[in-house]
């Protein structure tokens, strides 16, 4: 049985210890489009040698940024073919600005396993501290496994963010490169769904798709740039649901509403009739 919720829920995954340098931050931020305006001093803050400012979304890749092999979906009570899996949602809360270099320790557990009928959703929660135990960030993520539902588990919540009934306060369009996924995979996600045309076709897509976490980072950076004066330290938390695929080379239309101490955001693909890319996006201000 690929999923056994009695074993999976509450299971702890192996603790990860890792270190990162400013060059890792620069690589990640290049992977989500930093540097597209190379004469803009605000843009170059993301790529400054030594002490680049760090987007909170760096937290989603740092533990595995040096990985060179495709990931496996193999946890206690969970064994799933990688071709069936896409990212469902991601949330990160930073407890202090992420330093440009450092070391961390992450502990992760499987928090929920939901049965959506034709699919399953596996939710992980993780806590990251420095090696002295000081909190750095917490995260919650889910993966959506097609064809793995029907095991009799709970369906789980279905929540959506209600957007204001008015024009957005900010709008911007961000271009991606045809090689964006090939660049982003250098940040440790070597899933062939994002690089191998034959694997992508077998998984049901006409071509390799952009990593969901790449889109996640691109939209966070866009919001920071246009709504927060390109100051990543103003972000406390950031969450999103992956609502559709993005293909490398497409553009993303990002719409942002101010809402008290947070920003509400949508991202869609204008090249495909504004097909949704991210939904239920909330950026919480520090």
**Total number of beta strands:** 12
Strand order of the largest sheet: 1-5-6-7-4-9-12-11-10-8
CATH homologous superfamily? Hotdog Thioesterase
Helix content percent band: 10-25%
Describe this structure in words.
GO terms for molecular function: (3S)-3-hydroxyacyl-CoA dehydrogenase (NAD+) activity; 17-beta-hydroxysteroid dehydrogenase (NAD+) activity; enoyl-CoA hydratase activity. One of its GO terms (biological process) is fatty acid beta-oxidation. This is 3-alpha,7-alpha, 12-alpha-trihydroxy-5-beta-cholest-24-enoyl-CoA hydratase. It is built from six helices and twelve strands. The chain is an alpha+beta fold and 286 residues long. The protein has one domain (5-285): Hotdog Thioesterase (Thiol Ester Dehydrase, Chain A, Roll). A hairpin with a 5-residue loop joins strand 6 and strand 7.
List keywords for this structure.
10-stranded antiparallel sheet; alpha+beta; two-stranded antiparallel ribbon; 36% strand; Thiol Ester Dehydrase, Chain A; 286 residues; 12 strands
Topology at a glance:
Elements: H1 5-8, E1 12-20, H2 22-31, H3 41-44, E2 73-75, E3 78-80, E4 85-94, E5 102-115, E6 119-129, E7 135-146, E8 170-175, H4 180-184, H5 197-202, H6 212-227, E9 235-242, E10 251-259, E11 262-269, E12 275-285
Antiparallel strand pairs: 1-5, 2-3, 4-7, 4-9, 5-6, 6-7, 8-10, 9-12, 10-11, 11-12
Kindly summarize this structure in a few lines.
The protein has 286 residues and is of the alpha+beta class.
């Amino acid at each position: 049985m690929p999923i056994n919720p009695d074993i999976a829920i509450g299971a702890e995954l192996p603790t990860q210890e890792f270190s990162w340098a400013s060059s890792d931050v620069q690589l990640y931020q290049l992977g989500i489009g930093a540097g597209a305006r190379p004469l803009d001093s605000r843009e170059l803050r993301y790529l400054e040698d030594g002490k680049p400012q760090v987007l909170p979304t760096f937290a989603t890749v740092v533990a595995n940024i040096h990985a060179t092999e495709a990931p496996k979906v193999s946890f206690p009570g969970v064994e799933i073919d990688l071709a069936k899996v896409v990212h469902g949602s991601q949330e990160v809360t930073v407890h202090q600005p992420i330093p440009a270099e450092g070391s961390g320790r992450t502990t992760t557990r499987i928090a929920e396993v939901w049965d959506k009928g034709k699919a399953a959703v596996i939710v992980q929660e993780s806590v990251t501290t420095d090696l002295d135990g000081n909190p750095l960030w917490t995260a919650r993520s889910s993966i959506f496994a097609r064809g793995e539902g029907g095991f009799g588990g709970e369906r789980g919540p279905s929540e959506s963010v209600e957007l204001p009934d008015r024009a957005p306060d900010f709008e911007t369009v961000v271009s991606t490169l045809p090689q964006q996924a090939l660049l982003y995979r250098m940040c440790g996600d070597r899933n062939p769904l994002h690089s191998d045309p034959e694997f992508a076709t077998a998984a049901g897509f006409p071509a390799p798709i952009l990593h969901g976490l790449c889109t996640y980072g691109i939209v966070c950076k866009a919001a920071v740039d246009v709504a927060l004066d390109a100051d990543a330290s103003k972000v406390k938390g950031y969450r999103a649901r992956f609502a559709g695929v993005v293909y490398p080379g497409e553009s993303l239309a990002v719409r942002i509403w101010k809402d008290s101490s947070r920003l509400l955001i949508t991202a869609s693909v204008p090249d495909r009739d504004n097909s949704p890319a991210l939904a239920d996006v909330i950026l919480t201000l520090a």
